[in-house]
Amino acid sequence: MNSDISLRYRQFFDLEAEVDDLDEDSEGQQGAKDDDDFLDDNMSATHSGGVHLHPVATGDEETEDVDQYVKELTEHVCKWCHIEHMEGNHNEDSHNMNKTSYKISLWHVRCKHGSQDHLVNVLTRRQHICGETISHIFALPRIHNWVYLVVQSLHTSIYTLLVSCLSIITSRGRAIFQEVPLDEQADTLKMLQSKSLEEGDWIVVKTGPYHGDMGCIRGIFEWGLDVLVVPRFIDLEFIHISKKMQQHTKHNLLGPGSNPYVFGMNTHCLAITKPCFNEKAHIDKGLLVLDLHPLIPAAQTKAPCLREWLFEEEEVEVLSQSGSHDHHQGKIVVVASHHVEVFLDAGKGLHCFPFYQVIKLFCIGDYVHGIDGLKEGFIQSCSDFHVVLLTMGDNGDFEDFSCGKNTVHKLNRVQNENSNAADNDTWTGIRVIVRKCNHHLDGRRATVTSMTQTMFRLRAIVTLHKNSITNYTLDPDHLVDERTGQSLLYTVKICSVSELKGSGKMPWIGTHVIIHGKSGPLHTKIGIVRDVICGQSNKSGLCVVLILDNYDPSLTNKEYMVDYEHVLEVTSVTFCPLRLFQPLKDSQSAFLPKPWFIRSCCEEAITSAATTQCDTIQLERPESLAECLDPAWDPRSPAPAGLLPTPDLPNLSAFEHHDHWVTDICLLTYQLRVQASGKPMTMTTKYNALSEKVEVYSHKGKKKKKVLESYQFVQPMEPSTPRHYDRWIVIKGDHAGKQVCSIRYDKGLNPKMPIWWMVAVVLPSDDDMDTVTGEELCIESTCLCLEDESAESKKHNMQLSRGLREEAPKSSHQQPQCPSTFPSFAAH
What does the pLDDT read at residue 20? Predict the structure, then answer.
């Protein structure tokens, strides 16, 4: 019987042997495969490793075993044949798919803020609903509110899947699902390789109450970052003492009129912070250690330079990290964003060190100047991280002042009146922009107050526009003239600056100012500064002597003495006090206002009030006298009244200080193209003899005119593009009322700055081409307005404008010499 069984089932044994051979070959070529895939789930564990031949036995039990074995073997062979058939069909389908490949594109869908990662996980789990239409889903760490999908083919199941997610933003019931432009797809996929922020990196806060402060990343979350910010303290000396002082706690970081900074003595910092009873705060390198998180020491090598530190090419000492006394000395060669390159002494070569490991070197007797511009004096003693200065206080007494070594800068000699650099009037008053600087001052606007000769080269002392209390000593190579866009050294050597204001020891002479905050006939009057008197008993301690521009014979006095706090300059757009408009030099320190007046930031408050109430200051003018007075001879006039030409319009002096550029008498009868409430229109002005006012009319067609009452909101059409080569009218300045034609333009360094135009003065003609007078002006685009020129006039003057443009390149090799100060005018 055993022989019959063996002959009967020998073919199955041979087939199983072939199957095992195929398994071994496939394991050798493609790796080991699990045999459980070829067996049933309910198969016993003894057969999971493969097919085992049992020894032949006799009896009924042996017959049952053989039958069971043959049954399992038959099922195994049938399953193997079925798998081979399925693999054959799969190969044919993949071959056909390669023939008709799908177009793969990148799409993105809009989601709620902070839900990018959650949405990626949800879409990945539900990706099987769409089949093989979506191949990849990802989110970019630096692009919020968008999740990207690599789609092989669009299908309705994709839209159904997106709408089912609650994190997706919908519009009219449909998901905001858009295709990424083809030119941006490659850049988007490359962004996956960019390195994002990590824990331990140092960053600078851009917005909020800690704007500009540095911090270390403590944690990264979907909603944002958890940052450890470096604490800053307030010097209580610079806070104005008032009755409301008790409302401000000592923990306040940004108090009114304060100058926050980092460094200070141990007692000073502890007095400000006032730690708890069980808290033992300590000082490390001038910083108060509040939270010594382990991430801060780990990220010290990536820390940028503090705002209070300034490193230049000077001698420094490098501290060792191990804490030993084997310190190295050298000279700084390069200052980078996160380290400095120091050339060590004794031939040790060039090495890179972080900022916190570098300390400046000073000797007793060196004259230093604080970077913040508050203190300067001689060094009395030096410690590890601090120096004690001998300075002169506000009351004239000598006092000691302690500060950090890295917060002061060494000067070659004391700045006094005999210093040629400090009294060089060529540099004073130039408005500059800080460029190519390696710290937070890059891009800031400032004004040059004086020059000083340091140990290495000439330095410029500048005052920032938004923080006039702080002075900075910078290299002139890092300063760019705001007017010409050239380097400061190039501007002083090449461009001749004429009529510098405040030359000599008397400041602000010849500056146009307006009187505000004072009741009486002098309110809103405009005049010129003739003299400044110090040591007065008023609030600021200064008085300004003025000569009014508009001579009024009804007023007996020719000169008026006004308090300093009631005077604002009108040359610029800011309407600020005289000291903020033109900072004083060292030789003019006697004309400084009282110290408490400066510390209380009264000048900044006056500037902000004047900026918000600019229109109120211009409109609140005293009404003209009802009775007409006989004309009198102005003693400032070079000729008697009988020799002067008589004006056609009566009482022209009332229009000298017009409240708006539209009411200027020089623009009477001109047709100007303006914009009112965002709509272009044509405007003309006419003098009404009965009301003695200038009326503004708007044209609607050829004959329809309408009185325009709200002309304060009218804006002129300025030449903002190079295509504007039409006829224009000067509306502001000393040349107001002149008709000009554009020649060429010169853009500023900053795109927000106005364009300077070189224009030619012309005399219009009705039936012929305009006549060129030969006078050329360099005017800002904000002082020009488009004239409503007829089509025939444009046709006649087409050749004229073309000729002026053709002649421009012949003389354009030299930049137009724009005036250093724009011509003063009463109102803007």
Answer: 53
| Residues ≥6 apart with Cβ < 8 Å to 65 | 54, 57
User: Judging by beta carbons within 10 Å of its beta carbon (0-12, 13-18, 19+), is residue 234 exposed, middle or buried?
Assistant: buried
Q: What is the pLDDT of residue 787?
A: 87
Distance CA 805, CA 177 (A): 50
- The contacts of residue 35 (CB under 8 Å, 6+ apart) are 23, 48, 49, 50
Residue-wise DSSP of 124-156 = HHTGGGGTTSEEEEE--TTS-SEEEEEESS--H
User: Under a CB-based contact definition with an 8 Å cutoff, are residues 280 and 292 in contact?
Assistant: no
Backbone angles phi, psi at 463, to 5 degrees: -120, 125
Q: What is the CATH number of domain 105-193?
A: 3.30.70.940
Neighbours of 397 (CB within 10 A): 8
Q: Where are the domains of the chain?
A: 2-99, 105-193, 411-494, 512-619, 658-811
**DSSP assignment, residue 470?**
-
Give the separation between CA 19 and CA 453, rounded to whole angstroms: 95
Give the pairing of strands 328-335 and 315-318: antiparallel
218, 293 Cβ separation under 8 angstroms: yes
Pick 411-494's CATH classification: 3.40.50, 1.10.287, 2.30.30, 1.10.443: 2.30.30
- pTM to 2 decimals? 0.33
Are 130 and 150 spatial neighbours (Cβ–Cβ below 8 Å)?
A: no
Contacts of 755 (CB under 8 A, 6+ apart): 719, 720, 745, 746, 747, 748, 780, 781
CA-to-CA distance for 416 and 500, rounded, in angstroms?
A: 21
> What is the three-class DSSP state of 762?
strand
Amino acid sitting at position 80:
W
What residue type is 30 in one-letter code? Q
- Strand segments, DSSP code E, in 25-122 are 105-110
Gap between the Cα atoms of 826 and 660, Å rounded = 9
Cβ atoms of 781 and 719 closer than 8 Å: yes
66-to-3, 5, 52, 76, 77 alpha-carbon distances in Å: 13, 9, 12, 15, 16
202's tokens: 């140092």
- Residue 111 has what pLDDT? 92
Q: 192 Cβ partners below 8 Å, 6+ apart?
A: 138, 140
Q: What is the pLDDT of residue 273?
A: 44
Long-range CB pairs of 4-11 (<8 Å, 24+ gap) are 5/66, 6/56, 9/66, 9/70
Q: pLDDT under 50 in the chain at which residues?
A: 1, 19, 22, 26-58, 82-102, 234-279, 322, 413-423, 455-456, 493-504, 556, 614-657, 808-828
Phi first, then psi, for residue 126 (nearest 5°) are: -95, 15
Q: Which two tokens stand for residue 427?
A: 């540099």
Distance from the first to the final alpha carbon of the chain: 122
CA–CA dist 247, 233 (Å, integer): 17
Residues in the chain: 828
Pairwise CA distance, residues 636 & 633, whole Å = 9
Q: Which residues pair with 706 in a beta bridge?
A: 698
Q: For position 256, what pLDDT does the model report?
A: 41
Shared fold status for 105-193 and 411-494 = no
Instruction: State the pLDDT at residue 647.
Output: 39
**Cα 592 from chain centre:** 32
pLDDT of residue 276: 40
Q: In this predicted structure, what is the pLDDT of residue 109? A: 93
Task: Say what the pLDDT of residue 648 is.
Answer: 43
Q: How far is CA 47 from the centre of its chain?
A: 74
